């Protein structure tokens, strides 16, 4: 028998030091480091510098350095996708190295003092970095706008295809299923009137009732399809719509007490889907009430921009787990 006595060391995932989120802070940090370098340069060569030299260095070196600090912050506040941060950083680095390379030749051909060459080099790096950042930022914004425009076009085409499909389904339900259901119900009603056999009449009555229920379901589905595809959207008198639905429920459910607090008239934007929504809300509030005397109260609160409709009942309510799937 052998025993494994070797030590096992778990190594966690290696976190890269460079991530897309760190790019803006690298740019700002580079600008901040340049400011520190400028301060050190001023201290180191303070005895050799005149006031004009100090002011010129603060403007030509400190200005671009602060520009880089602000540029990194600007990048975090922009709507540019984080996946393009690295591209902006490459432009910034390329501008700094490129402009420094351009200025190295005159620095070598026309030697200056050590203080002057260091200031010149730092100016080249900072100015080139700011210019590169500006180019990268503008380019990234342009790419972002193009991508968003393309995505919007694709989404519009998808919505158009979805509307076409919903229209087809609506027409199919209306011409094929709904008409057939109404024909079946009509024939069952005619046959029930012609025959006196109670068993046959009961079966025909069942067929007629099921046909009516199927017609109601189809109408609900069509209303839902119309609501989803935005068909016939316009101004709807919400008060009149609710009053009609309440009157229908009072006629269907004698044992239910329905109360309403409605304004004289409230105009909202909507379509046939509103009627379907409130019809189902009221029916569910009554049919799923396990009390002896179901009570339902409807209130409407109109605000300048919105209208809130509250349907409350004395039933058991909807379980929390079911609410997430319903709403």
UniProtKB/TrEMBL annotation:
Assigned keywords, A-Z: ATP-binding, Kinase, Membrane, Nucleotide-binding, Transferase, Transmembrane, Transmembrane helix
A Pfam family it matches: HisKA_4TM
Keyword Membrane: yes
Histidine kinase domain location: 172-327
Protein name: histidine kinase
Keyword match Transferase: yes
Gene3D superfamilies, per database record: Histidine kinase-like ATPase, C-terminal domain (3.30.565.10)
One term of GO molecular function: ATP binding
Substrates-to-products reaction catalysed: ATP + protein L-histidine = ADP + protein N-phospho-L-histidine
């Amino acid at each position: 028998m052998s025993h494994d006595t070797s030590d096992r060391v778990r190594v966690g995932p290696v976190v890269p030091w460079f991530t897309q989120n760190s790019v803006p802070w690298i740019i700002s940090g580079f600008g901040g480091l340049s400011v520190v370098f400028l301060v050190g340069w001023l201290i180191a060569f303070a005895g050799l510098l005149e006031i004009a030299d100090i002011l010129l260095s603060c403007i030509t070196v400190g200005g671009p350095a602060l520009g880089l600090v602000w540029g990194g912050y600007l990048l975090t506040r922009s709507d540019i996708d984080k996946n393009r941060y690295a591209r902006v950083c490459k432009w910034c680095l390329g501008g700094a190295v490129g402009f420094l390379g351009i200025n190295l030749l005159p620095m070598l051909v026309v030697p200056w003092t050590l203080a002057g060459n260091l200031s010149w080099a730092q100016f080249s790096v900072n100015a080139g970095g700011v210019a590169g950042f500006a180019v990268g930022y503008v380019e990234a914004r342009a790419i972002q706008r193009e991508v968003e425009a393309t995505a919007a076009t694709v989404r519009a085409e998808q919505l158009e295809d979805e509307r076409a499909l919903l229209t087809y389904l609506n027409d199919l339900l209306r011409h094929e299923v709904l008409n057939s259901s109404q024909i079946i119900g009509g024939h069952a009603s005619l046959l029930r009137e012609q025959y006196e056999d109670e068993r046959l009449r009961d079966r025909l009555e069942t067929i007629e009732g099921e046909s009516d229920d199927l017609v109601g379901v189809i109408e609900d589905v069509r209303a839902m399809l119309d609501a989803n595809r935005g068909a016939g959207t316009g101004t709807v008198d919400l008060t009149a719509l609710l009053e009609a639905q309440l009157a229908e429920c009072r006629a269907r459910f004698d044992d239910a007490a329905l109360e309403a607090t409605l304004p004289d008239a409230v105009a909202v934007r909507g379509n046939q889907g509103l009627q379907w929504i409130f019809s189902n809300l009221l029916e569910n509030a009554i049919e799923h009430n396990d009390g002896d005397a179901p009570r339902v109260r409807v209130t409407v609160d109109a605000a300048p921009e919105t209208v809130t409709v509250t349907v409350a009942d004395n039933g058991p309510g909807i379980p929390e787990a079911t609410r997430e799937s319903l709403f």
